[in-house]
Design a protein that fits this description.
The structure is a homodimer of 595-residue chains.
Chain A (H helix, E strand, L loop, with lengths): L7 H12 L15 H19 L3 H7 L2 E3 L2 E3 L4 H10 L18 H14 L1 H20 L2 H13 L3 E5 L15 E5 L2 E12 L9 E7 L12 E6 L1 E3 L5 E4 L2 E6 L10 E6 L5 E6 L5 H37 L1 E4 L5 E3 L4 H33 L3 H37 L10 H8 L9 H13 L5 H17 L5 H30 L1 H6 L1 H30 L5 H18 L2 H9 L1 H7 L7
Parallel strand pairs in A: 3-6
Antiparallel strand pairs in A: 1-2, 4-5, 5-11, 5-12, 6-7, 7-12, 8-9, 10-11, 13-14
Helix pairs in contact in A: 1-9, 2-5, 5-6, 5-8, 5-9, 6-7, 6-8, 8-9, 8-10, 8-11, 9-10, 9-16, 9-17, 10-11, 10-12, 10-16, 12-16, 13-14, 14-16, 14-17, 14-18, 16-17, 16-18, 18-19
Chain lengths: 595, 595
């Protein structure tokens, strides 16, 4: 397995120059945090990720989580690393100060999670789930429940898990059967759930499940689902762990990747029923769960970024050190000298940087949507986040799979050998387009819930933002930026046309819109990625022309990477536009019996 | 693991209607074979593949090949299946009758290998290697060596393997160090080779390695490499297995996939040197090996086809049986009803059928290049095969990885669980863009050896063939065919322009051409795939308009699948053209220190 080294320079660039770290200072409700603080936090996190978590990544893969005699155990070293993570307070980063958290802005915790995801995706997933559970309980639980459960989740004494899926209820959550029978103030939960990531493990002495179930006499389908808190162990009022609740891990899945993350099948209530506490309103469980899922969906997009970054690093390191073949002058050279290897590396680098810009930019919107003084700006950013969430989830995870695959290809035969570690990234990455709603579900969500709900308003705000940026670019000289501007304008126009068409289709022929949804989402992700890369190129251009710089190479690289994005990635938007519109109609009109 | 059922209908269609099985009858040097014979052969092979080989596929993956006390053993059931394969005479299919083979045309054996590859890629690989070794010895070995070695390889008593790669000599074969010291009429081989697929195993009592090594005083680099036959066991004149040769399996690799295929590190000559016999001329080993590698490269393309077909079948079966979600009328339905699932399935189906057409069509060209009476036609088809070999190898294997990934996506969470078998196809497929020359090497080979060598003549013959077909299509009515014609004309023009540009670049800026090589190859594969799909659509259209058919649905599906290819796959050619030309130039001009 390769080493992992956080890409500090690009992280800082995106934070400070592209997204605007200083904006956080204008948000009075957030804890003040200086640029120097951020550097220090990232350095510490980077050391923890590269020195503690990263070396466990391959061990975790090889050993995997195990179930023996009803006990789920994690691979060697995971318990110790978890204690260290907890001790260092990393789990508290995003939670509100009132519950023992540090209240760091989402923009900063997004960078932290990029590091954890790069270093060790399986490990990071556990904390992502706890983080999501904290978000959910903060928004929906009663103060009484919050007092008992939140501090221990925030401190990392306990972890969170989501118990949603049942064998017959996967993407169609509304089909679930798990039952919750009132018993005084609490409920008795009975049923079986699967695909519960970190549903059971040996890292902490309690695990808090957020579980969807149906109270008798509730309506069928999605409107009859309620949300419950179901802990592995019951607690007393002081929060001390007591009797075991009625839940039992029946099996853990043998998966393609993320082997260190136990994916559990859990049976609730083999006798009287597991005790569960209602979170939010009866029958409104799905809507409460969605607040958690949206946070989690962004988090999965960040997993895509993390894996892609690590795959890129590994490929670049290998290409710089592996000597094979000769250059045009007949000299033996590292393979990075071969143009086709450069092509692969540049495609990885360009897309990883675009993903990072898109993820961090949206994270700032999360902060603005929650903390800005002006309610209009809060609303605007709320809409922006809502629109970008499915795009980040799906576009970044699809890219991660592609980039992990390119990493294997750069390695040649060595990439196919497990020891190298490239194969693990490829296997691990493959879950990200699936969980938290498949990318197909994300794309349909994008169209049905985000585009249609405001008749394309928010997407058109983004498109208009790009048009205004085009105006700024029009004043800039320099061949690279002129080329970048041209391609971005073309693909922005494609996104604009496709948005118009898919909105029309959604009204007249919803099946056509559904069939074009995935290419449409990919089109939007690609154009937005190109937009951020072009913004970065402009900043770099200005910097290079105005100042004597310590590190001109970084800015020169920004421009050449943006140019590579615009020349080799953006041209795909023409095909995506067709697949989203006319291609979707062809798919929708193809008879099932002809497939 | 899913069942495998050979796609008889499409195989027969491509053989009889699209490619022209009857052409084989015009080749006097080939054994006569009727259409009825072909049906019978395919049915028998289909039963063998689905009943004997396919059920071992998952066992092979789970158990894997093992090395213990110097002995390599295959998973449970492989020995028995191999004996059955041998007894049924499948190994003899392609070899010349003079050496005990059945002399079946390549067109037919290509269909057989599609079946073996779909059923069990690891198992099939062993026979692919033997087949390639037979081809090589038939062309290059002395009659004396042929008499000893060929009949036993043809009968399947022994298997073949290729010993090429050394740690420092992967894609750059010319860097190899393995030595061959003359000792009377034979040579003493010393050195270590890795990545030898099926280099050692327990299926047969001998294994014939075709090994590249350097005779002392040979020139450095590629021009100093000779080819040797190095058997695991020496034989007497009667071909009876005798003393063990000095070779030893040091280890087998733990790989991402094809676990049942032992990938060996082998040490030759720990004492006096392993005995080896020179094949072909001294220092001309690489050129002799290339005749084997070209056969093998087509064979790897057929592996891509086989895996992709199986992935498509599994996805379609799952989509037809998995009930989840509701249709527009609110009824619970199998997921094939959801437009996004249809989109995925159609993209798989369209590409699999295009791959099949391309593979079979080229296989007929192999037969024509070897057996036609007219030397001009032989030469034309030889050029055609030379041009299409890297395209088939790389385009089909890249598609296989993509299609295996879509199969996982269609399955959702279940696709990530190893038991389902979708993950195995995804892991197995990933080797195919790597071995027998990475797809990057194929693309550079396409440009440097195939395009430049005849200044684009053969590619332009294909483009002209497509132009003439466009003329035929122009007379046809029917909206589907008109749409198909339009898209094909656009993408054919893109291929024509890119060919012209990349030839120019190759002369002036070879690095630009190298950087655009992979997108160029993908462009060519996509356009040629679209061409064959359009041809199939025209045949189907004619059939549907002229006759009362027993199976109109098959022909209706051909048209709708071709339409899906042209609307959702062919539009990608615009982006590929850019990446092959202007995009390649940008990559080539990017400084290495900026990556």
């Amino acid at each position: 397995m390769s080493d992992y080294c956080p890409p500090y320079a690009d992280m800082q660039f995106v934070l400070e120059e592209l997204v605007g770290l200083e904006t956080l200072g204008t948000l009075p409700s957030l804890a003040k945090i200086s640029a120097e603080d951020v550097v220090e936090i990232l350095n510490q996190a980077g050391r923890f990720g590269s020195e503690i978590l990263s070396p466990l990544n391959q061990i975790g893969d090889q050993e995997g989580a195990k179930l023996k005699n009803g006990v789920v155990s994690t691979p060697a070293g995971f318990q110790k690393a978890y204690k260290a993570y907890q001790r260092a307070g990393w789990g508290k980063a995003s939670a509100k100060i009132a519950f023992g958290g540090q209240g760091l802005p989402r923009l900063i915790t997004t960078v932290l999670f990029e590091i954890w995801n790069s270093a060790n995706l399986s490990f990071a997933l556990c904390n992502t789930l706890t983080d999501s559970a904290v978000t959910l309980l903060t928004k929906h639980a009663t103060p009484e429940l919050q007092t008992i459960w939140l501090p221990r989740l925030v401190s990392g004494d306990w972890t969170g898990a989501m118990a949603i899926t049942e064998p017959q209820a996967g993407s169609d959550v509304g089909a679930l059967n798990c039952s919750a029978i009132p018993d005084g103030k609490v409920f008795r939960i009975k049923g079986q759930k699967n695909y519960i990531s970190w549903g059971d493990h040996d890292l902490t002495d309690n695990i808090v499940h957020l579980l969807l179930a149906r109270i008798p006499d509730s309506p069928h389908g999605s409107n009859g689902i309620s949300l419950f808190l179901v802990p592995k162990f019951l607690t007393n009022q002081k929060g001390e762990v007591g009797e075991r609740n009625e839940m039992r891990c029946l099996s853990i899945e043998k998966k393609l990747g993320i082997h260190a993350s136990p994916t559990c099948v859990i049976e609730y209530g083999s006798n009287k029923g597991a005790l569960g506490w209602l979170i939010g309103e009866k029958n409104r469980g799905l809507s409460a769960m969605f607040t958690m899922m949206n946070t989690a969906r962004l988090a999965i997009g960040h997993q895509g970024l993390g894996i892609a970054e690590r795959a890129f690093q590994q490929a670049r390191n290998f290409a710089n050190s592996r000597v094979q073949g000769r250059n045009q002058k007949g000299k033996l050279v590292p393979i990075i000298n071969h143009p086709d290897v450069r092509r692969m590396l540049l495609s990885m680098k360009a897309q990883v940087e675009a993903m990072r810009a898109l993820c961090y930019d949206t994270a700032l919107s999360v902060d603005l949507s929650e903390n800005h003084q002006d309610s209009k700006i809060r609303a605007l950013h709320k809409g922006r986040v809502a629109l970008l969430t499915p795009i980040i989830k799906a576009w970044c995870t699809d890219r991660a799979v592609e980039i992990a695959s390119i990493n294997i290809q750069v390695h040649g035969g060595a990439g196919y050998i497990e020891q190298t570690g490239a194969a693990q990234l490829y296997r691990d990455a493959r879950i990200t387009p699936i969980y938290e709603g498949t990318n197909g579900i994300q794309a349909i969500d994008l169209i049905r819930r985000r585009l249609i709900s405001d008749d394309g308003f928010m997407m058109n705000v983004l498109i208009e933002e790009m048009r205004q940026f085009d105006g700024i670019l029009s004043t800039v000289k320099g061949n690279e930026l002129i080329s970048i501007r041209g391609r971005l304008a073309e693909s922005g126009a494609a996104l604009s046309r496709a948005t118009h068409q898919i909105l029309n289709a959604a009204k007249i022929n919803p099946e056509n819109a559904d069939a074009g949804a995935v290419p449409y989402l990919c089109l939007a992700g690609t154009v937005l990625g190109g937009y951020h890369m072009a913004r970065a190129a402009l900043i770099a251009d200005t910097k290079l022309s105005n100042k004597k710089l310590d590190n001109p190479k970084f800015y020169e690289a920004k421009i050449s990477t943006a140019l590579n994005f615009s020349e080799n990635i953006l041209p795909k938007t023409a095909a995506l536009e067709k697949a989203a519109t006319s291609g979707g109609a062809v798919v929708a009109n193809t008879r099932i019996d002809l497939i």
